[in-house]
Structures are given as C-alpha cells and as structure tokens.
Specification:
Blueprint (H helix, E strand, L loop, with lengths): L1 H19 L14 E3 L2 E3 L6 E4 L2 E3 L13 E3 L2 H6 L3 E2 L7 E3 L2 E5 L2 H14 L3 E3 L2 E3 L6 E2 L6 E10 L7 E3 L4 E11 L12 E8 L2 E7 L10 E8 L2 E8 L3 H12 L2 E3 L2
Parallel strand pairs: 4-6
Antiparallel strand pairs: 1-2, 3-4, 3-5, 7-8, 8-10, 9-19, 11-12, 12-14, 13-14, 14-18, 15-16, 16-17, 17-18
Length: 258
Amino acid sequence: MRRVGALAILVVTLSACSSASPGSTSSTPVGRPPEHVGDRAFCNLLAPVQATGRLFYPPSYPAAFLPEAERCFASVPEARAAGLRPAPPSRGSRLVSGIYLVPTGREMLDTCRRAARRLAFAVACPGLTPDPSDALNPVPEAVGEFLLEESFAGPPSYVGVGTVGFGSKSVGHLWVDSVGRPPDRGFCTGARFLFAIEVAHRHARYLSCPQGSETHSGHVLLVWREAGATHIVSLHGHTVVNRRIDFLLAAHCRIVRP
C-alpha cells in the first residue's frame, strides 16, 4: 500500500514539474494577444516582437515578409524565455548585426537602365539594400552622376547618423554612387585609404571620409572601377559592421551599361 502511495506522489510531482517547464502548454497564455484592424493582426510598440508558431520576429524584421501575428512580446529576451526561436531572414535577404538587407525589385533595375542611357556610362545597380527596399531612391539634384540615397532604421547597437523615436532606434544613411570620372580625383576632402579587397573578382578599396559637409562626409566607402566608370557604396559611420554591409551591397550590385 505504501508503494502505491509513493508512486502516486511521484506521478503528481512529475506532472507538476512538467507543467512548470518552459515551452509546455499552460493555462496561462504566454505573451500578449495581437491588436486587430479589420482582418489584420499586428503587434504594437509596447510589445513589438511578433510570434507566429514557434518563431519570433524582431521589430526590425522586414514588414513585407511578416506572417500573421499570433502573440506579441515586449522584448526578444522575453520571446526567447518562452521557448521561441528567431525567424531566419526571408528568402534572398541577409542579416548583419540587426540590419536586414533585402532584394531590390524590377523597378530598381528599370531606374538603373534609364540612368545609364541618360548619363552614357555604366552604373552600379543595387541588388540588395537595407529594408525597406523602396526607400532607396535616386537623388534628382545629382548632376553628372547616378546617386541613390536611403535612410534606414537599425537596432540601438547600430552606429549610424544618430538615434530617433521610441526605443532609441539608430538611423543609418546609405549612398550608392556611380560616376564617369576616374577614382584618383577623390570623393571627399581628407579621404583616408584603409585597405584593398576583392569584391566579386573586382579590385576595390575602402576609404574613410572625415566629418564635414560633403556627400560622403562621415562615411566609410567601398570604391571600385568597372566598365569605364567608378562605383561607390557608402555608409555613415566608420565601423566594421558598415564595412561588412558595404561589401555585401557592392557584391550584389549589377553593372548596367548604357
């Protein structure tokens, strides 16, 4: 009789431990329910980390690739504590230190082709850009060059031009530039050579520009010469992360000829 009682206590104890373990089904819901507008469910700024299935999506995850929200969490650690795994980058995208680089579309290629015909020299057409892809646009005032500009949001740890808004999100600044002149004429006053590198079998070099009022001031540049023109990918902030992003963006540029 004592043995039956002991077994009953053991079963109850194991059951209690099992119900308290992370990732198990509990009567207390984990996270918060999403907001609803019409038939769309989304997470608000108080709980911006979306969960769907066993995956969570940080606030910087590209909105165009988010599935329907099922639960919301206040932070990534809270989502991890609930036993969820981070969602992988969407197809064709890259993740670098919290910055999602997403593919550009047909519209960007058409823009590059029109620019190459108008300028009569080859231009670098980005195949990847920081999310969202439609924020990368030509600068109409640029004369004699194909200049694309984008401002984008990053996590607080990212070093860009500064921080803004709820949660002190960092703001990055990108230029993609193609010019017909040779590279020895310089792109900013006081440019400093960092080191040379190969990008997709092309000789390229990193330069850093000091703070100032020129286009690339405060930026780290990756510069290469191809198809008779000079091409530049340039990010504000002299960091290893920005050099890595420069490299990936340059490696995914398509050279569009006139």
